[in-house]
Amino acid sequence: MSQLFQEAIIISILASTIRIMTPLLFSAMGELITQRAGIWNMGVEGTMLTGAFAAYLVATLTGSLWLAVLAAIVAGALMGLVIAFMTATLRVDHFIAGLGLNLLAGGLTLYWFQSYIQGRAQPIFSGFQDVDIPLLSDIPVIGPVLFSQRALTYVALLVVPVVWFLLYRSRYGLELRCLGENPKALDVKGLSVSARQYLAVMLGSAMTGLGGGFLMLGFSDRFLADFTAGRGWIVIVALIAGNWRPRGVLIAVTAFAFLESLATHLQVVGAQVPHQLLLALPYLASIGLLMGLRFRSGQPARLGIPYARE
Amino acid sequence: MIVFERRMEANALWTLSSFIMAIVAGLAASAVLIASTGANVPDVFGALLQGSVGSPKALATTLVKATPLILTGLATVIAFRAQIWSIGQEGQVFAGAMGGYLGAQLLAGLPPLLFFPGVLALGMAAGMGLGWIAAVLRNRFAVNEIISTVMLNYLVVYLLSWLLQGGPWGETGGTISYHQSPMLPDTAFLPALFGSSRLHAGVLLPFLAAAICALVMSRTPLGYEIRGLGYNPEALRHKGVDIARTVSVIMMASAALAALAGAIELFGVSHRLRADNLIGLGYAGIIVGMIGGLSR
To answer: Which domain of life is it from (chain A) (predicted)?
Structure first.
């Protein structure tokens, strides 16, 4: 009996690890593309929040979840456009640009949310449900963990190899990595640096926005202030911890998700720990992780340095 | 031959006009947002003006509300001038209120002339501890201060949440938890400036703090180092300045200012420890600092 119980708990922990992980994975892969292009985008939190809000708005207005996904992607790309304009065209300090964007997103989403509901009861929607993959979902343990998830989860897991291929096996990826390592080389060849920066940041931010949208559509039915609750910052930490490589970032995001899943299950099991301590665990772990990561060889050489022709 | 040279610094007129343009753009954007929800723009701006400076009472309320924002704004300017992108003001405000509350229990019964400086100093010390942690993370472990301060903000918010709910400081009525501490005794309320008005003595401190900051920035070696760190840290290092020490001093000074905001909120406004009236003071201070920091 207790063995059965334990097995059920372990399956539940692993399944919710995958569930928590996948929205973060979209955002992390998006930010990976942005940062490999040399843009230190600190606006992940704001971009995810905007994506989540856009998804909420469209889901409650139209009732179509896939339109809502599209809205999150578009909202993310627009945030990317703002970041690209500030960093590539105006050459504002990257940190300042991202910080400003976060503050703007926090205020704007709340303002629009309040004026959207106007005091009435908040409209809610019913989000994505689990999709069982036939046959595979019947495998014990692995089935419920991996093959009984939201549809977008499968997409997120596919995005990792796609981003890897894009970065390391395509001409576009070579140019993109060159933006982060040595943009002058592109400029000397007569290729536009800023056009490529715009494209990279908008593509990356679209994925980051999708992550926020998935967070909304897959795991909630309503919008709240500060909905993303620091997940955008966890994404940035995961990028550093993953040494700016797709596989490393995947491992880091999985570790964070596992920690969060463990924390929620400890509550369910009824461990005698204050729940605030469990909620604080991912942030404590982030600080600890960053302290141990002094050597970051994978960091793009020109990350965060605005490019200007001499 | 004509050669274009990148200018080193914008001239005063351009700086001033970009400052005005930023405010005009902000107002214009607000007008667009207000109009987008279907409200009458002049009415809204009129109500804003009336509610903030329209009567002596409104003016007093504005001063009380501005007090923490001036302090967190100053905290931002000090750090950002040195190109230290600390956004730990939010957590430091919380730490200041928590340190102050602890102080109110330790120093209860002291005469007001000792009590208030004591509790405010303890609040500031709590904030400085937080600033010190972020400085050590940056100096010793090369952790980016934006990320570390965000993480610390969340940790402090959860710490307060635990202290008030489940922890030792919560006010409980039977089985209900109110997410706030019991009321402080009225000997621990900051005295009112005019009789029974809500204008507490704490509103004077930001002006004092701003004057001290201006003096330190323009007239002392520390101020020179703060500005130097922003312009050219390499040159500063070659001059023999201990960069790590300077970073620690700046981050702790900035944290002390933000924490003072939290402590004043506790003793001047809420009179009990709760998160509601502290949330957002730090982040709003960053906006205040960014706008104010444009003018040198």
So the answer is: Bacteria
Is the pLDDT at B76 greater than 70? The verdict is yes
| pLDDT, tens digit (0-9, with 9 covering 90-100), for B209-236 | 999 999 998 899 999 998 889 888 888 8
Taking CB atoms and an 8 Å limit, are B37 and A115 in contact across chains? yes
CB A228 within 8 A of CB A51: no
Of A103, A115, A233, the CB nearest to B286: A103
d(CA B236, CA A165): 44
Q: Indicate whether B82 and B45 sit together in one domain.
A: no
CA angle A96, A102, A105 (to 5 degrees): 135
A140-171: pLDDT as tens digits:
777 777 777 788 888 888 999 999 999 999 99
Please spell the DSSP secondary structure of B112-165, one letter per residue: HHHHHHHHHHHHHHHHHHHHHHHHHHHHHH---HHHHHHHHHHHHHHHHHHHHT
Per the CB < 8 Å rule, is A290 touching B137?
yes
The pTM for the full model equals 0.85
Nearest chain B residue to A289, by CA: B143
> Do B249 and B157 share a structural domain?
yes
Same domain, B250 and B142: yes
Residue B1 lies in a domain: no
Chain A residues within 8 A (CB-CB) of chain B? 42, 95-96, 99-100, 103, 106, 108, 111, 115, 230, 233, 236-237, 240, 274-277, 279-280, 283-284, 286-287, 290-291, 294
Asked if residue A32 lies in contact with residue A243, where contact means CB atoms within 8 angstroms, the answer is: no
Pair (B35, B86) in one structural domain:
no
* Cβ–Cβ below 8 Å for A290 and B148: yes
Residue B8 belongs to a domain: no
Q: Domain range spanning residue B17?
A: 13-49
Per-domain boundaries in chain A: 2-118+143-292
Taking an 8 Å cut-off on Cβ atoms, the answer to whether A233 and B166 are in contact is no
Q: How far is B51 from chain A (nearest CA, A)?
A: 20
Domain tally, chain B: 2
Cβ of residue B37 closer than 8 Å to a chain A Cβ: yes
Q: Which member of B137, B146, B283 has the closest CB to residue A95?
A: B146
Q: Residue B177: is its pLDDT beyond 60?
A: yes
Please state which of the four CATH numbers 1.10.3470, 2.60.40, 2.40.160, 1.25.40 is assigned to the domain occupying A2-118+143-292.
1.10.3470
* Backbone conformation region of residue A119, classed left if phi is above 0, alpha if psi is from -120 to 50, else beta: left
Q: A40: which chain B residues are within 8 Å (Cβ-Cβ)?
A: none
Label residue A118 by pLDDT band (50, 70, 90): confident
* pLDDT of B296: 45
Q: Could you give the CA distance from residue A308 to residue A77 in angstroms, rounded to a whole number?
A: 24
Segment B99-109 mean pLDDT? 93
CB atoms B155 and A283 under 8 Å: yes
Task: Please give the Cα distance from A252 to A298 (Å, whole number).
Answer: 15
| Assigned domain for B38 exists | yes
B154, B100: one domain: yes
Using CA atoms, how far apart are residues A76 and A43, in angstroms rounded to an integer?
Answer: 11
